[in-house]
Amino acid sequence: MTAPAELDRHFREAAGGLPGGPGRGDPAAPVRAGSRLDGTTLLAIFDAQLESRHLDFAARWMQQHGGGYYTISSAGHEGNAALAAALRPTDPALLHYRSGGFYCARARQVPGVDPVRDVLLGVAASADEPIAGGRHKVFGRAELAIVPQTSTVASHLPRALGVALGTGRAAKLGVACPWPRDAVTMASFGDASANHSTAVGAINAACHTAYQGIPVPLLLVCEDNGIGISVPTPPGWVAASFGARPGLRYLAADGCDPVAAYDAAARAAGIVRSRRRPAFLHLSTVRFLGHAGSDAEAAYRAPADLAADLARDPLVATAAALVGSGLLTPAEAVARYDAAGERVRDAAERALSSRPLASATEIMTPLAPRHPERVARRVTAETGRDRATAADGPVTLAQAVNLALGELLGTYPGMCVFGEDVGRKGGVYGVTKGLQRRFGPARVFDTLLDEQSILGVALGGGLTGLLPVPEIQYLAYLHNAADQIRGEAATQQFFSAGQFRNPMVVRVAGYAYQKGFGGHFHNDNAVGALRDIPGLVIASPARPDDAAAMLRTCLAAAAEDGSVCVFLEPIALYHTRDLHDDGDGGWLAAYPAPGAHVPVGRARTYGDGTGLTMVTFGNGLRMSLRVARRLAARGIGARVVDLRWLAPLPSDDLLREARLTGRVLVVDETRRTGGVSEGVVTALTDAGYTGRIARVTSKDSFVPLGPAANAVLLDEPTIEKAAVGLLEAG
Ligand SMILES: Cc1ncc(C[n+]2csc(CCOP(=O)(O)OP(=O)(O)O)c2C)c(N)n1
Ligand SMILES: [Mg+2]
Hints:
Elements: H1 4-16, H2 39-64, H3 80-86, E1 93-94, H4 100-108, H5 115-123, E2 146-147, H6 157-173, E3 185-190, H7 197-211, E4 218-224, E5 227-228, E6 231-232, H8 237-242, E7 249-254, H9 258-275, E8 279-284, H10 303-310, H11 314-324, H12 330-352, H13 360-364, H14 372-385, E9 394-395, H15 397-411, E10 415-419, H16 435-439, E11 444-446, H17 451-463, E12 467-472, H18 482-488, E13 504-510, H19 528-531, E14 537-539, H20 544-561, E15 564-570, E16 589-590, E17 604-606, E18 612-616, H21 619-633, E19 638-642, E20 645-647, H22 651-661, E21 663-671, H23 676-686, E22 692-698, H24 716-728
Parallel strand pairs: 1-2, 1-3, 3-4, 4-8, 7-8, 10-11, 10-12, 12-13, 13-15, 14-15, 18-19, 18-21, 21-22
Antiparallel strand pairs: 5-6, 9-16, 14-20, 17-19
Helix pairs in contact: 1-12, 2-4, 2-5, 2-11, 2-12, 3-4, 3-9, 5-12, 6-7, 6-17, 14-20, 15-20, 17-18, 21-24
The structure holds thiamine diphosphate and magnesium ion (MG).
């Protein structure tokens, strides 16, 4: 491995040994014939690169002293400082983890930001670190328009697309956006990451969008060091993959040469800004210090390759450009390097004694803030305004959601409804019918068939001030994009101490019991993948009136608290009209009055029986109510609790209703393992409930096609039998 000491010695020798340049150069003049880069800017780039390099050395030194927790370095990638110089500090940036040069360069463009302190506090995992508050080592800062990223490679690219689309859309809709209308959104990533399906999907979505003439001001930057940890990228692959994509302008440059990198970046940024088309900037770089501090690079890289990389050190190249244009002498270049080193080392000593995160409360405070009173006030204020959409008679679940979406689109100017088939067709089940006609294609639109990109548009849109309501056509299709909710949406406030938020309400059609439309993918009941995501709100309405009221709550919580909400709609109940008997209209309900809402985490109880408490949700509610009537005929009084929220669970309501009977039957249409009932039983036990508990669930199986589905899904006879059994047991 190229060790820090070796890298340090090489720079001193190479920069110090540069042939002297001409007499004093003019800092205002281009540093190279035909280039747009002037001397002052190149000096700023150099200073940023020096800081970044010394930050990498300091991170290792801090680790050795037991006070540093992150050693993935930017060494060899410092050419990205030129990228920052070619962009505006108001251009939103979603950065690769080797972006020290970029960060330090952008910080120089904004008064009051000390990038050295920021980065070192991040390495120290200090609570005083300005963006993540020590929760992760990230490059991010609101003042620098840098949105912090997680460690999942390429997972930020769908979001970047959403930011690029959102900046223009927010301006069009008159919604306040943190970034200007003509901003270029920049996202950088590594060469191996470029192969990740998330990257490929997002880039494809950008091309697909631009191909239709829709503005996509997105600059994609691949920092290609030729390797991903230990696996080489086939030479030429990145260019071959992205060099000739329809709708994507491809530019390449030597990322180790600051002048070439700057000129290419300026050209690319200019194209994106003026034409509102995506561009792919391919910068070749080198990687020093291995993949991370623990990486024994010598095991998989030949000494000759390491030596070849060293000869391309971007810091030496910048020093050479400065010396060659008479802006510095070789000795001055080295002195500047040493001065930066001293500054960084001083700051590193201070960072070692910085304040760590102290408690779970402190860590979790920004995770998912909740202000129920403010949410309630917002619902009342907002929905009181638009009464035009309220229906006269009772409505179905699908109609209620449709009316509520219309009401809320009329209420929140930044709300956008989008997904597969939601626009012209109005959704597979007609839930979004008529909304595009009423609110226009800027607010209600069809997307391409890619759930990761749909969620990415929401993730980025939320950052730009929009209130995204994406639709996932079926619950099964959420799973191939789950990381966009789990790793991205749900972590945004956590990793930015609440400075960035991506409010959204993800509507998902789900659960089983569809008649005549079978198979696993249309009858998925797997909610376990959502229930363990910290901070996520999961709404699971069953009744039409609750659905509308809960959608109001979710939009208000998203607007007020930046909440990430998943709104699970039971497909089988969309058009259900009756409860007990044909024609009884028992599953219809009046559209809720203006201002009515359901607070997050509040259940609803039906009946006042004292024999047992049936705890349920979704299709289970209808089955339980039907069973309760039959039990009543047998002299058994049941009360039925509809949870309505699967996260956070309505624990207080649950405990109260459980204690009223001392016998609880959990009626759970999801699976026995990983399903909702496990959480309900645990919540009751945790709260000190000591009565009886039983549960009935669907089988631990996928749902087969046709009538065979009934063999694995929970049904009413099973519920009834369990209820009777519970009473017989005492
Ligand atoms: C989705 C995902 N899979 C695997 C990893 C583990 N991982 C971290 S970095 C990396 C290599 C990335 O290489 P490249 O994109 O070329 O970036 P470089 O480190 O070379 O700059 C891998 C496999 C990850 N962070 N995320
Ligand atoms: Mg790489």
